[in-house]
UniProtKB/TrEMBL annotation:
<dbReference type="InterPro" id="IPR011711">
    <property type="entry name" value="GntR_C"/>
</dbReference>
<dbReference type="InterPro" id="IPR000524">
    <property type="entry name" value="Tscrpt_reg_HTH_GntR"/>
</dbReference>
<dbReference type="GO" id="GO:0003677">
    <property type="term" value="F:DNA binding"/>
</dbReference>
<protein>
    <submittedName>
        <fullName>FadR family transcriptional regulator</fullName>
    </submittedName>
</protein>
<dbReference type="Pfam" id="PF00392">
    <property type="entry name" value="GntR"/>
</dbReference>
<dbReference type="GO" id="GO:0003700">
    <property type="term" value="F:DNA-binding transcription factor activity"/>
</dbReference>
<dbReference type="InterPro" id="IPR008920">
    <property type="entry name" value="TF_FadR/GntR_C"/>
</dbReference>
<dbReference type="Pfam" id="PF07729">
    <property type="entry name" value="FCD"/>
</dbReference>
<feature type="domain" description="HTH gntR-type">
    <location>
        <begin position="13"/>
        <end position="81"/>
    </location>
</feature>
<keyword id="KW-0238">DNA-binding</keyword>
<keyword id="KW-0805">Transcription regulation</keyword>
<dbReference type="InterPro" id="IPR036388">
    <property type="entry name" value="WH-like_DNA-bd_sf"/>
</dbReference>
<dbReference type="InterPro" id="IPR036390">
    <property type="entry name" value="WH_DNA-bd_sf"/>
</dbReference>
<keyword id="KW-0804">Transcription</keyword>
Length: 240
């Protein structure tokens, strides 16, 4: 692949979203034909001028959208038959929409975590661990993009090896991202202190999955979704 000076992005779009869009466009155009292997990760990262972390976030989304499949020792292959999208979540335009999204997440994501605890192998738990570490690193630096939080939940869903759960998490990514941005915009607490509980909650989920304890994973995810909702709505509530 030729090296690019920069990954094209729309206003407000993260680096990983820009890479995702570029690779998807190449797949749609046939530049990466169905059934073919994508270039190696180091080659793609160099070509798009991004880190391996950013590239892997884009590849995770491509997998969730049914565009590619990954296999250890083989690489990322463009799927010949794309999985149909199960559903698309409505955009979050109001606080009421965010509340509906959190209620949906509370009903679904704990079961995703429980199944991940039953099914996750060493490779899957490694991906969850890596996403948790990336979130911790960006929080420590004071620079957090919502994609780091979303990547953790995507990795948990991927560990279930259930395409319905995987696509569900991908489908609600946008309204979840809106919630994270609302919490960041309205909270009077500085970012590192505000996001430290998220790291602790993610670690509790990861520990339960690593231990193969579905009930503990379910409870840890329930606690995380409740706390995440509070971080949005405590900041969004009117004074008085």
């Amino acid at each position: 692949m030729e090296r690019r000076a920069a990954t094209p992005r729309r206003n407000g779009e993260s680096l990983s979203e820009g890479v995702y869009g570029s690779i998807r466009a190449r797949i749609d155009a046939g530049e990466f034909p169905q059934g073919s292997l994508l270039p190696r990760e180091d080659e793609l990262a160099l070509a798009f001028g991004v880190s391996r972390t950013v590239l892997r976030e884009a590849l995770t989304r491509l997998r969730h959208d049914g565009l590619i499949a990954s296999k250890r020792g083989t690489g990322n292959r463009v799927l010949e038959e794309r999985r149909p999208t199960i559903f698309q979540a409505a955009p979050a335009h109001s606080i009421a929409d965010l509340e509906a999204c959190y209620k949906f997440r509370y009903g679904v994501e704990p079961e995703i975590a429980a199944l991940a605890a039953e099914r996750a192998d060493r490779e899957a738990t490694g991906r969850i661990e890596a996403s948790a570490r990336r979130l911790e690193a960006v929080v420590a630096s004071g620079h957090l993009g919502p994609e780091h939080d979303l990547a953790f939940h995507a990795a948990v869903a991927e560990a279930t090896r259930n395409s319905y759960y995987i696509q569900t998490i991908a489908a609600i990514a946008k309204p979840v991202e809106v919630g994270l941005k609302v919490a960041a915009a309205l909270s009077p607490i500085e970012p590192v202190r505000r996001l430290t509980p998220t790291i602790t909650e993610h670690r509790a989920i990861l520990s339960a999955i690593e231990a193969g304890d579905p009930n503990a994973a379910r409870l840890a995810m329930q606690a995380h979704i409740r706390a995440s909702r509070e971080r949005v709505f405590v900041g969004a509530a009117p004074a008085g």
